[in-house]
Amino acid sequence: MLCSAAASSLAQGASVVIVTPHTPVEVAAGQSGAARIRVRVRPGYHVQANPVRNPSLVPITVELAPLGGVLPGPAVYPPGKLFRIAGGSEDLVVYDGLFFIEVPVRAAPAQRPALVLLKGTLRYQACTDRICLMPRDISLRIPISVVLEASAR
Amino acid sequence: MRTFLRMLSTLVSVALMSLALLSTTGAAQLRPGAAAPEFRLKGIDDRTVALADLRGKFVVLHFAATWCPFCAAEAPHLEKLHRNYRDKGVAVAIIDVKEGKSKVAKMAKKFGFSFPVLLDTDGSVAKDFASPPDVLPDLERDEVMIAANLIIDPEGKIQFFSLLDTGDFDAKLIKLQGRLNELLGTK
Predict the structure, then answer these.
(1) Beta bridge partners of A107
(2) Can you give the pTM of this predicted structure?
(3) Alpha carbons B83 and B178: distance in angstroms, whole number
(4) What pLDDT is recorded for position B23?
(5) Which partner for A73 in A102, A104, A139, B113 could form a disulfide, CB atoms 3.0-4.6 Å apart?
(6) B98/A57 CB distance under 8 A
(7) Measured between beta carbons, which residues in chain A are less than 8 angstroms from residue B69?
(8) CA–CA dist A146, B172 (Å, integer)
(9) CB contact under 8 A, A130 and B65
């Protein structure tokens, strides 16, 4: 009973935020593009947005590492919603449901055509209106297809 | 062969029953009237505080984390409670779960806490106080305790316990104060 409860708790906790794998982003060498990361939050939960109003809180963040001649830029976060805890004195800025985080990506002029997998982490901290989960990390694998300029969309 | 399988089956049953017993130990400790689990933790001021050191006082314990918005909402009311009750034999302490000293010290300074803020850096104390597996099963056992409040009496028994998952979050600690006043025999 303990084992199944623990496994269930890990499984359920891990699926509060789901990042959907997406098709490769095409970027021409010497040009820029944007990876659009699709994030879905389980109904009833919200995550702290980015930026947060209270510096103690953990904003959602996406960090991608550069690889070869493919360079990610700082992530761009959508506007959040205001949410106030009953009895609290300040509004929180949160995301819920489905939202997208964009990461600009630039391919160096000398980058050869290739499928490059950028690795990184999405960090979040989720709550309902009654409970909070500890901050958690999701590993990201973002495929970037570097193409010759003429063939880029 | 049959005898061996029977013995193996008995051994497995005993092992499972032992595991089940271990898993309910935490649950038993959170009943009102049950003995609170002992702890000994270092605070952000590097002083060590053990629950045993606080025998003879009522202890208000709050499990917190710097990232927890519910804890932030409670914080000013906790400090106010400490100031109002410290001369009435009540000790207040925060147990911060799974965070480093400098981060927690910054939070404590921001809220002006004048009571011990203790560091449960590996979450083991929070787990000792954890609810049974069927309570908030979505969460890890040491997460369940975050933003929980307890009152422990001078004999070390739990007299009040509130998990965050209540119908109305009590940031102003009204229910806790009500119970504390009952225990102190005051209004």
Answers:
(1) A70
(2) 0.77
(3) 16
(4) 43
(5) A104
(6) no
(7) 48, 54, 57, 85, 88, 92, 127, 132
(8) 56
(9) no
Chain B residues in contact with A135 (beta carbon < 8 A): 67
**Taking CB atoms and an 8 Å limit, are A85 and B171 in contact across chains?**
yes
CB–CB contact A9 B138 (8 Å)? yes
- Pick out chain B residues at pLDDT < 50: 15-28
Compute the residue count for chain B: 187
CB A58 within 8 A of CB A123: yes
Cα–Cα distances in angstroms (integers) from residue A34 to residues A37, A76, A110, A143, in the given order: 9, 10, 19, 11
> What is the rounded CA–CA span in Å between residue A141 and residue A81?
28
Q: How far is B28 from chain A (nearest CA, A)?
A: 15
Spell out which chain A residues touch chain B, with contact meaning CB-CB distance below 8 angstroms.
Answer: 1-3, 5-6, 8-10, 12-13, 16, 48, 54, 56-58, 85-89, 92, 125, 127, 129-135
* pLDDT tens by residue, A34-79: 999 999 999 999 999 999 998 889 999 999 999 999 999 999 999 9
User: Domains (ranges, CATH) in chain B?
Assistant: 2-184 (3.40.30.10)
Nearest Cα of chain B lies from the Cα of A59 at a distance, in angstroms, of 9
* Tens digits of residue pLDDT in A5-20: 233 333 334 578 999 8
Q: State the CB neighbour count (10 A cutoff) for residue B105.
A: 18
